[in-house]
Amino acid sequence: MSTLSTKADDIARVLEDEIVGGAIVPGTVLRQEQLSERFDVSRTPVREALRRLAALGLVTFEPNRGVRVRSISPAELREAHLVRAELEALATEVATPRMTAADLVALDEAERRFSELTLELRDQARRSEARDSSLFVEWMQANYAFHDVIYAAAAMPLVERLAKSARRTFIGDRVWSARVELDELYAKNDLQHRAIREAIAAGSAAGARLLAREHVLSSGRLIEMVIESVGGGGRDPGWGS
Amino acid sequence: MSTLSTKADDIARVLEDEIVGGAIVPGTVLRQEQLSERFDVSRTPVREALRRLAALGLVTFEPNRGVRVRSISPAELREAHLVRAELEALATEVATPRMTAADLVALDEAERRFSELTLELRDQARRSEARDSSLFVEWMQANYAFHDVIYAAAAMPLVERLAKSARRTFIGDRVWSARVELDELYAKNDLQHRAIREAIAAGSAAGARLLAREHVLSSGRLIEMVIESVGGGGRDPGWGS
DNA sequence: CGGTCTCCTTTGGGATCCAAAATATGTATT
DNA sequence: AATACATATTTTGGATCCCAAAGGAGACCG
């Protein structure tokens, strides 16, 4: 039976998740030895895994110094959203004439779930309650789920890979503030999903395309505001441990 | 003084060039030992380099079997061009209001060189002479040079990286046929460059955007035809040597 | 001709070892 | 006290040797 995955692959995937999920803060220096200890392997597969992360742009090698988790600047975040907007526009356009009835149902379900969570989120914001970051994470995931239905219908693996890699330029939990000013933006997001859904159902590829583009751009602005309102986050921790 | 690069990095870069340049045909199996022999290093940095290529999608790891250079299907080629079209459209739109006088001059020079080579290429095609593949390669490079001026002005590193990675989904030399049917397509390419140039000079970001998009799409079709007319190329060499 | 059982090659990975590079630490000097 | 210098420590990049297991190539057999 084939092994189907190597340790280097496994380690890379775990670290990838932790980095994009925000469990490892940008700027952190990854020590080879402590990773090999943690995963109970030798340094060899660890280094291979780190090479992969480096090629993915999640991490940078500084020769003879180590590997550190990259932090994304506001400019990079903006650019990533511009890219994602174009790619999602393309995927949506292509997906529209390919959507089956089953796809539409899946889209509806994703939309409904997203709608629910949006309501909860607005509610929580209005009551100024304890900010439950897990709710925000769920909301983001529901958002992604909606878009994933479209990706699946488009059947464009390259676009999907690039767009997902561009959208993971995000910070994860702990970056969510329930400020009321953002309230209407959350709602807007939901309305945009519905508009996209209707354009697709109506078979308007061009319309869906434009809506998808605008949607990603505006949700990019939302995320920028959220991050800004929370403060850029961790600065350069230097080279210590 | 810092080393500035590791052996793994060097090896990865060399192999990358050879793969995208077509010196290593898709389907080839890369043996770790012969690579380590060739670069006069141990297997360790070789494997790290291969991991990087794998993350870049140039190569696939098949556990316990080896690493093989990926070959791109016609479908992938199409998709890559769709992606590149969107990204170049974006870059061109952003670049337009940022173009300085010096940038415009550089664009002109690139255009002139491209124009010359296009003439030579058509000439050669008409005379049905010995097909000089190096001329075709030069032509492609001049083409890229034109677009690179625009990328530089756009100052969008992510877009540039992705688009260049999408455009390198190409086969290199030896895939050029001087069929007369393609003659007008080469000319069309040149005219499109001029149109883009003029739109940028006129400050029309929206116009330049549309032109750039169409241009990439149509040059994608051209490349598809060239490849088709030559025959898909090497098929699966199996796992031998 | 299809199926099984060796033998060989290659991979994935571990263990050690070493030189060079960075960093940290301590000491001397002004 | 602040700076410059010398030394010690840590960590990386890499080599080398090693080994188990996977896959492929016959050889062998029904």
Provide a descriptive summary of the structure in words.
The structure is a homodimer. With about 240 residues, chain A is mainly α. In chain A, about 65% of the residues lie in helices and about 5% in strands. Chain A has helices at about 5-20, 30-40, 45-55, 75-95, 100-125, 135-155, 155-165, 185-200, 205-230, and strands at about 30, 60, 65-70. A three-stranded antiparallel β-sheet of chain A has the order 1-3-2. In chain A, strand 2 (about 60) and strand 3 (about 65-70) form a beta hairpin. In chain A, helix 1 packs across helix 3. Chain A is globular, with a radius of gyration of 20 Å. The N and C termini of chain A lie far apart (about 40 Å). The model of chain A has no long low-confidence stretch (mean pLDDT about 90). Chains A and B meet through helix 3, helix 4 and helix 7 of A and helix 3, helix 4 and helix 7 of B. Chain B binds a DNA duplex (30 and 30 nucleotides) through helix 3.
For this entry, give a set of tags:
homodimer, 241 residues, mainly alpha, 67% helix, globular, DNA-binding
